[in-house]
């Protein structure tokens, strides 16, 4: 009877194997071919695809942009979420409304957020440019998404804004699990408000910090939505992330073989970064405890 229970796993395993494991394995096959996505009579080209993406510079540019995006998302998102969590953990009137308002952006899809912020950033007639004009400033000079040096920071800010509520909820849940007796003991020992936060609350939030950092790192490393919706990788290659570069190479340039090789390298890079970070965060969590 107990062995029959495993039969119920077969449909799920079949779907998982068909739509994830098999395509994943085929990725390695296509990475050493000149497959263009249509013609099945492709040729084996060995490691030429890997050599081409390394020599072209697109790989290092994409990795650099992705790492900057991820670092800003992790640092900015977690700091802002921590501040919000501490503020919304206090007892003030209308707390339920403020908590809901902080979480609302997380409820919308990335495509909606991307289009809305594209209009916010729009030169001359956008929200920010209109406010600048209202105060006598030149709103036409405001063009974040059209500036090579600022576009990446502009779309990262949008991602931080969208996900800060979700990150805040995890911190808020962590704060509410802290026993009041611990805080009372710290107060009796002469801890000020800041000292209680620094030496009591933040160490007790170590598991929440680990979860949020890992989630934000994964979110940053697979960034695709906002570079696609808001800038299409531009201006130039300033917002080309790993995922967007793979998409562009495969579906715009029809170089599926090279895109597969790019995906293999990206997979290795992401796994390595995530594994190292997970070990580091686990170690820091143990030290904080």
Key descriptive features of the protein:
MetI-like fold, 13 helices, Sugar ABC transporter permease, mainly alpha, globular, 289 residues
Provide a brief overview of the structure:
It contains 13 helices and no strands. The chain is mainly alpha-helical.
Explain the overall architecture.
The protein is an all-alpha fold. Helices cover 70% and strands 0% of the residues. Helix 3 runs parallel beside helix 7 (151-176) and helix 7 (151-176) packs antiparallel against helix 11 (225-231). It is globular, with a radius of gyration of 23 Å. The model has no long low-confidence stretch (mean pLDDT 89). Belongs to the binding-protein-dependent transport system permease family.
Show the helix and strand layout.
Blueprint: H1 10-30, H2 48-56, H3 58-88, H4 95-103, H5 110-120, H6 127-134, H7 151-176, H8 180-188, H9 193-204, H10 206-221, H11 225-231, H12 242-252, H13 256-288
Helix pairs in contact: 1-13, 2-13, 3-7, 3-10, 5-11, 7-10, 7-11, 8-9, 10-13, 12-13
Outline type:
globular
Average residue pLDDT: 89
**Name of the CATH first level:** Mainly Alpha
Tell me what portion of residues adopts beta-strand conformation.
under 5%
Q: State the CATH superfamily name.
A: MetI-like
Order of helices and strands: HHHHHHHHHHHHH
Helix content: over 70%
CATH architecture grouping: Orthogonal Bundle
Helices, by number, come to 13
Fill in the CATH topology: MetI-like fold
Low-pLDDT sequence parts: none
Q: How many domains is the backbone divided into?
A: 1
- Give the termini distance in whole angstroms: 45 Å
Structural class: mainly alpha
Number of strands: 0
């Amino acid at each position: 009877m107990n062995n029959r229970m495993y039969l119920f796993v077969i449909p799920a395993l079949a779907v998982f194997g068909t739509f994830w494991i098999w395509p994943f394995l085929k990725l390695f096959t296509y990475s050493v071919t000149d497959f263009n996505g249509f013609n099945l009579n492709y040729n084996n080209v060995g490691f030429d695809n890997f050599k081409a993406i390394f020599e072209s510079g697109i790989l290092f540019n994409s990795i650099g942009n992705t790492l900057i995006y991820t670092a800003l998302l992790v640092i900015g998102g977690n700091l802002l979420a921590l501040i919000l969590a501490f503020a919304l953990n206090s007892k003030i009137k209308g707390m339920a409304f403020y908590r809901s308002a902080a979480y609302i952006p997380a409820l919308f899809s990335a495509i909606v957020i991307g289009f809305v912020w594209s209009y916010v950033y729009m030169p001359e007639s956008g929200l920010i440019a209109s406010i600048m004009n209202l105060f006598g400033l030149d709103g036409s000079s405001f063009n974040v998404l059209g500036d090579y040096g600022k576009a990446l920071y502009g779309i990262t800010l949008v991602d931080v804004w969208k996900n800060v509520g979700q990150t805040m909820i995890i911190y808020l849940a962590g704060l509410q699990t802290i026993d009041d007796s611990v805080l009372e003991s710290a107060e009796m020992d002469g801890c000020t408000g800041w000292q209680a936060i620094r030496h009591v609350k933040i160490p007790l939030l170590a598991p929440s910090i680990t979860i949020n950092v890992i989630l934000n790192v994964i979110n940053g490393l697979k960034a695709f939505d906002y570079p696609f919706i808001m800038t299409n990788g531009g201006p130039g290659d300033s917002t080309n992330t790993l995922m967007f570069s793979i998409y562009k190479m495969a579906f715009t340039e029809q170089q599926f073989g090279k895109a597969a090789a790019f995906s293999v390298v990206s997979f290795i890079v992401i796994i390595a970064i995530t594994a190292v970070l997970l070990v580091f965060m686990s170690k820091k969590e143990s030290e904080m405890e």
